[in-house]
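User: Sequence in, structure out. Go.
Assistant: Echoing your sequence, followed by the C-alpha cells.
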Amino acid sequence: MKVGNTHYRSIWFDAEKAKVMIIDQRWLPHEFRVVELDGLDEFATAIRDMWVRGAPLIGATAAYGIAIEMQRNASDEALDNAWERLNETRPTAVNLRWALDEMRKVLSALPESERARAAFRKAEEINDADVETNRMIGVHGLEIIKKIAATKKSGEAVNILTHCNAGWLATVDWGTATSPMYHAAAAGIPLHVWVDETRPRNQGAQLTSWEMNSHGIPHHLIVDNAGGHLMQHGEVDLVIVGTDRTTASGDVCNKIGTYLKALAAHDNNVPFYVALPSSTIDWTVDDGVREIPIEERDDREVTHVFGRLEDGSVASVQISPDGTPGGNPAFDVTPARLVTGLITERGVAEATREGLLELFPERRDAA
C-alpha cells in the first residue's frame, strides 16, 4: 500500500543493500521509520518486541530470518537452532510456526551448499503468496460489503467495526480485515469504519487509524467499550476482525477484547466476520479455549501508554499508581458459534469443521 506517494510492503528485501527492511511499527503513527534487520537476534527481537506484529507478517519475517541465518551458517544445527529461536518469540500466532516449518521442510532436503539461495527463494515465495492471499480475502469480503450496501439508501455508508489492526501493517500487504474495506473503497462503495482503540497496545488507535487516514477512508476512533452501544443503536452494519489462530472447528483467537465484540454482535444480530489466510488455520487444534496457548505480555503495556506530548515529542507515560501490577493476556478466543463466517482466500466458509473442509478439501484426510 502507499505511504505518501511511495508503495511499501511491511517487509521486503533490499537487493542493493542486501538487507531485509521493515517498517518499525513501534513508532507509528507519530514517526514513520524503516529499519534493517541483520542477524538472527535482530529478527527474534523484532518479532518478540513487536517491531513487526500481526500473524501473517510474523510468519513472513521469520522466513526471512531463516534465510539470513542460512547465509551465515547453513548447517543442520544452525537451521534447527534458528527454528527454535524464532518459534519461541510469540506462542499464540500459528503463522510463525507454519512459516518456519515451510522453510525447514524445503531446506532440510538440500545440501548445505544450496541452502542459502534456496532459503531466499522460499522466503520471497512466502511473502509474495501472502500478498496475493490477502488480496483474494478482499475480493471475497467485498461481496459481503456489496450485499449490505445494496440495502442502503443512495450515498449512505456501510458502517464497519474492526478491532486491533488486521491491516496491511499486520501482513506483507493489503491486510486481512482491511482488505475488503480497501476493495470496497476502490469500488466506490461509501464506507465508515469504527476503529476500536484496542488497549493495551492501542493498535487500533495507532495503526488502523493511521491506515484509514492514509487511504482516505472515513472513520472514527472509539474506546474499546463503545462497540456494544453503537450496535444497540443500529450504527454498526457488520464487524470484521482478523485472527492469529483459527481452530479446525472454527474458533478464532484474536487480540484481547475480540470475544466481547462477538458477544455484543450476537446479541444485536450484527454479522461478525473473521478474515484470515489459510496459514492461520491450525488443523491440529479443535477447542480454542482449552488448547490455544495465550501469550502473557509485560504488565508495562497495561500500566503505561505511548503517545505524543504537547511539545511534539513522543514518550511512554505511566497511567497507574506505583505498585499496582498489570495483568496482560494478549489474546482471547471467540467460539465458532459467535462467528458468522470466515473470509479466506478461497471464499467465505461457515465457522465449522465441515465449512472449512468444503473450502480446503485436501485437509480431509489430515482432519
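User: And one key feature?
Assistant: The chain has a mean pLDDT of 96.
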